[in-house]
Design brief:
The chain is α+β, with helices and mostly antiparallel strands. It has eight helices and eight strands, in the order H-E-E-E-E-E-H-H-H-H-E-E-H-E-H-H.
Length: 265
């Protein structure tokens, strides 16, 4: 009778628990006790989420829990505010490919760092979609670098500091947009911005052209300098933190990679 009552108790807890199930991208883990880990994932409907994986430090589980892997995550807890537990099912493994592509691995780690600027359990589907698209295309360093710039622009928008690159802030024209005002975060066309170019930020053309265009490191550097300015002003300095050192290393990696690609032609 006692055994039956214990089973009944756990059945009641499970079926009355807070729970959800959704595809997720693994961001990282940290040790929890002797055998378990606290897993951090990004989901489309539930945002960045954390929970315990029992036995997560075992040899059997470790390969599944590598950053970048795509899993079906089931979370449950007695109360919504509890840390909760994860059950996982593998959907797609990216970790082995990431290990041999340092630019892609660093980009994923930087994106995960950016996502931690957002409140936990706060849905941001556009950032999840961008991260998912990155995970499908990280083999190409050119796409990798471009997506990082676009991810940081989306991050600024989700944090409430989005830039307006749709038209010139002065004339309303959509052609020849070459600069961004550091004060308003709005685009400025070449004619208006030329006399003030030393005080304006450069706008890479791949962010405003409607058709695909060739991208070089100069374009990527302009894009990352642009996002760096606004992230520093509105996010990092406001929170008393510095730009992740990983970001500086990643930009250097991109520069070397782009130079290598150019030298092969």
């Amino acid at each position: 009778m006692q055994t039956q009552s214990v089973i009944a108790k756990w059945d009641w807890i499970f079926f009355n628990a807070m729970k959800w199930k959704e595809p997720a991208i693994i961001l990282g883990t940290r040790q929890h006790g002797e055998t378990s880990v606290i897993l951090e994932i990004m989901t489309r409907q539930h945002g960045r989420y954390m929970g315990i994986v029992k036995g997560g430090r075992s040899r059997r589980m470790a390969p599944l829990l590598q950053p970048g892997n795509f899993v079906e995550a089931e979370w449950w807890a007695r109360l919504d505010e509890h840390l909760g537990l994860f059950r996982l099912e593998a959907l797609d493994s990216h970790a082995s490919r990431l290990i041999v592509l340092p630019e892609a691995l660093y980009s994923l780690q930087l994106m995960a760092s950016h996502l931690r600027l957002l409140p936990e359990r706060d849905p941001h589907p556009v950032l999840y979609d961008m991260l998912y698209f990155f995970m499908q295309n990280f083999d190409d360093p050119f796409i990798n670098a471009e997506l990082l710039v676009r991810f940081e622009l989306l991050l600024l928008e989700e944090l409430g500091f989005g830039l307006d690159l749709s038209c010139c802030a002065v004339t309303g024209r959509q052609e020849k947009l070459c600069y961004v005002s550091p004060k308003s975060g709005r685009a400025v066309c070449e004619e208006i911005g030329r006399p003030w170019k030393d005080k304006l930020l450069l706008l890479p053309q791949f962010l405003v052209q409607k058709t695909a265009c060739p991208i070089d490191f100069d374009d990527i550097n302009k894009g990352l300098t642009l996002t760096d300015f606004f992230l520093t002003r509105y996010v990092w300095e406001a929170r008393g933190i510095k730009q992740p050192s990983l970001r500086v290393s990643l930009i250097q990696l991109f520069e070397r990679r782009f130079c290598m690609e150019v030298s092969t032609f």
